[in-house]
């Protein structure tokens, strides 16, 4: 019988995990590598509900599982040494568990790599660990274009817009991944479960001030607080100030659905230690203008639902960012991007230096392995 390997956190064990194990076990004897408590804290920025020994005990008790262990490594590839020792025939992952690095490792080790979709058992509902942690519904944020223009030391050279979408927490995105996770933690400190009703811009200002108390040396940009709090698609116009001089919001269902159907996130490996994105910066008026122009083109393309112009402007915004902040993307990230972009019309990076996600614009969803987002609607 062939040996099948799966790896994951498997905190709050639920029917979705069991269905995943049962599907994987159809290919052979199933063995499970479990992320340690330390690894989960590193990736998710939180402690587990169930300890590694509890999770190991429960998974070993499942009839679909032939064996299980705690992975010996850390980070997204915490299983690396274990898989080299174990030498499975198949590595089985869900779409949200797929990364280019995992696929590359399987090619190098001659292991068959299978990416499955989430399929619930019978008539059971689709389950995820994040869905079971619904006590916190506070969104994440993606900036589609113009990122860095919310910093006055950038927009003082040329005004420009940052485009953001508020993302429902259907997944527990990795910590420090460019999804405004640090700002979201502050939002959880203030509001615990969800954004309060009322004046949302005032809520965003409250969050911005809470995250940036007097005396803080590095001010977090306001696109983080605004991107989390304001639903839908938002255009934030900055001009040498921490707060935008104008906010334009789009709640049109056709446009929001159009964006959702064309964006895919692919997880990257963790960033290296002692990383500093602000090293080696080269901010000039012409480079800032390039970023602002790309954001304007991206905005127009979205409103026109012009997929090719959207992809082109999406990429142009990313290239303008790394022209000013080259530390955003190291050689490993650029190599991964080069391997993955064949079927994409545009791409950018969420996060910097690793630990985040590559975001792709595409109309050929069957050629993309990645996470689909859901934009928060108004109300």
The CATH homologous superfamily of the largest domain: GHMP kinase, C-terminal domain
Proportion of helical residues: 25-40%
CATH architecture of the largest domain: 2-Layer Sandwich
**Low-pLDDT regions:** none
Reading the helices and strands in chain order gives EHEHHEHEHEHEHEHHHEEHEHHHEE
Order the strands across the largest sheet as they lie in space: 3-2-1-4-5
**pLDDT averaged over residues:** 89
CATH domain class of the largest domain: Alpha Beta
Binned strand content: 15-25%
Shape: globular
Count of the separate structural domains: 2
Number of strands: 12
Q: End-to-end distance, in Å?
A: 52 Å
Question: Over the alpha carbons, how many angstroms does the gyration radius reach?
Answer: 21 Å
Instruction: Determine the CATH topology of the largest domain.
Output: Alpha-Beta Plaits
Largest sheet: 5 strands, parallel
Helix and strand layout, with pairings?
Layout: E1 3-8, H1 15-25, E2 29-34, H2 37-44, H3 52-60, E3 65-70, H4 80-86, E4 90-94, H5 100-109, E5 112-116, H6 129-132, E6 140-145, H7 152-155, E7 160-167, H8 181-191, H9 200-211, H10 222-229, E8 233-238, E9 246-250, H11 253-260, E10 263-267, H12 285-304, H13 307-324, H14 331-340, E11 346-350, E12 357-361
Parallel strand pairs: 1-2, 1-4, 2-3, 4-5
Antiparallel strand pairs: 6-7, 7-8, 8-9, 10-12, 11-12
């Amino acid at each position: 019988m062939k040996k099948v390997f799966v790896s994951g956190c498997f905190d709050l064990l639920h029917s979705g995990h069991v269905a995943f194990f049962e599907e994987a076990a159809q290919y052979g004897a199933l063995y499970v590598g479990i992320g340690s408590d330390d690894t989960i804290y590193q990736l998710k920025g939180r402690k587990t509900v169930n300890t590694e020994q509890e999770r190991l005990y429960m998974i070993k008790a499942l009839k679909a599982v032939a064996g299980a262990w705690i992975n010996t490594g850390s980070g997204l590839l915490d299983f690396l040494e274990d898989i080299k020792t174990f030498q499975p025939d198949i590595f089985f992952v869900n779409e949200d568990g797929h990364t280019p690095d995992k696929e590359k490792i399987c090619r190098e080790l001659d292991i068959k790599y299978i990416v499955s979709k989430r399929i619930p058992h019978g008539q059971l509902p689709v389950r995820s660990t994040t869905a079971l942690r619904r006590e916190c519904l506070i969104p994440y944020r993606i900036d589609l274009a113009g990122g860095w223009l919310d910093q006055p030391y950038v927009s003082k050279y040329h005004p420009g817009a940052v485009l953001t979408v508020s993302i429902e927490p259907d997944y527990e995105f990795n910590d420090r991944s460019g999804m405004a996770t640090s700002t979201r933690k502050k939002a959880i400190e203030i509001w615990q479960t969800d954004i309060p009703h009322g004046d949302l811009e005032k809520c965003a200002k409250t969050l911005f001030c809470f995250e940036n108390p007097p005396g803080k040396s590095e001010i977090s940009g306001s696109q983080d607080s605004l991107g989390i709090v304001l639903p839908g698609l938002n255009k934030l116009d900055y001009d040498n100030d921490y707060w935008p001089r104008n906010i334009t919001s789009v709640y049109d269902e056709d446009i929001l659905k159009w964006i959702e159907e064309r964006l895919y996130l692919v997880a990257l490996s963790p960033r290296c230690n002692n990383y500093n994105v602000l090293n080696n910066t080269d901010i000039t008026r012409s480079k800032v203008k390039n970023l602002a122009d790309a954001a304007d083109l991206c905005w127009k393309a979205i409103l026109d639902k012009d997929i090719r112009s959207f992809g082109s402007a999406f990429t142009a915004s990313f290239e303008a960012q790394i022209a000013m902040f080259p530390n955003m993307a190291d050689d490993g990230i650029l190599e991964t991007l080069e391997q993955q972009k064949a079927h994409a019309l545009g791409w950018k990076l969420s996060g910097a230096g690793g630990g985040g996600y590559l975001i792709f614009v595409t109309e050929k969803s069957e050629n993309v392995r990645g996470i689909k987002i859901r934009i928060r609607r108004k109300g």
